[in-house]
Design goal:
Layout lengths: L7 E9 L6 H12 L5 E4 L5 H11 L3 E7 L3 E3 L4 H9 L4 E7 L11 E10 H6 L25 H9 L3 E5 L1 E10 L7 E8 L3 E3 L9 H12 L2
Parallel strand pairs: 1-2, 1-3, 5-7
Antiparallel strand pairs: 3-6, 4-10, 5-6, 8-9, 9-10
Helix pairs in contact: 1-6
């Protein structure tokens, strides 16, 4: 008889491919270890970002909550998890970093980004696992009348079904780059920190990873 897997409260995941500097996952892992957390990093050259999200969301059932980080996204303070779990206690909630896809719908499409989000596995199942791929990868149908970026469809389904979007907002921006189209939080950019505890570098491909690596070294140097 197979032993039933023990249910965990949460699991943390990230994804990368051959375009990512190998130092990036190494340093991300080091930061999570520094704060006493485990992260499951997946390397796959065939998956798109949306493919990975679809796979994880459907596959992981032995945990109450799934937490997703981009490979160049890290916590900067140990209390990030308690803050996140507190938001997740509100039923039917999707929690994570605010973003707009500025190349779609004139940028006016605020959603919770797949570079950092968390959701209940039971809630995902009740939503029938919304497709997380970007529009170009989804067969055109009435379900997708507008263009969507990777992960964006999840936010839209949560809203349509009466769920709650709990946005984490930029609190510091190293290099201001894009409009966020929100009256109180109008901008985000390269090296943005959200809710004072989640950092996302953006663009950490092989030759653009210095920003992320420097931030990791800074976090690791703190006691």
């Amino acid at each position: 008889m197979k032993k039933k897997k023990e249910q965990s409260l949460f699991k943390i995941f990230s994804f990368y491919n051959k375009d990512v500097n190998p130092d990036v996952p190494h340093y991300q892992q080091a930061v999570f270890n520094h704060f006493g957390f485990s992260i499951n990093q997946t390397f796959n050259n065939k998956f798109s970002h949306g493919d990975f999200l679809n796979y994880i969301c459907k596959k992981e059932s032995d945990t109450d909550y799934i937490i997703i980080f981009d490979i160049d996204c890290i916590p900067t303070k140990k209390n990030w998890l308690s803050l996140l779990l507190n938001d997740l206690l509100d039923p039917d909630s999707l929690v994570g970093a605010a973003q707009t896809a500025n190349h779609l719908r004139e940028g006016k499409n605020l959603y919770i980004s797949p570079f950092f989000f968390a959701i209940s596995t039971k809630y995902l199942k009740s939503l029938n696992y919304p497709d997380m791929r970007m529009t170009e990868q989804i067969r055109k149908s009435n379900d997708f009348p507008d263009a969507v970026d990777a992960g964006q469809h999840l936010s839209e389904v949560v809203s349509e079904k009466g769920g709650k979007l709990k946005f984490w907002w930029p609190t510091h921006i190293e290099e201001d780059k894009w409009p966020l189209f929100h009256p109180e939080h109008p901008r985000f950019g390269l090296g943005t920190t959200y809710n004072n505890c989640i950092y996302h570098a953006f663009y950490s491909r092989s030759n653009l990873s210095d920003r992320f690596l420097n931030k990791c070294r800074s976090v690791l140097a703190e006691k």
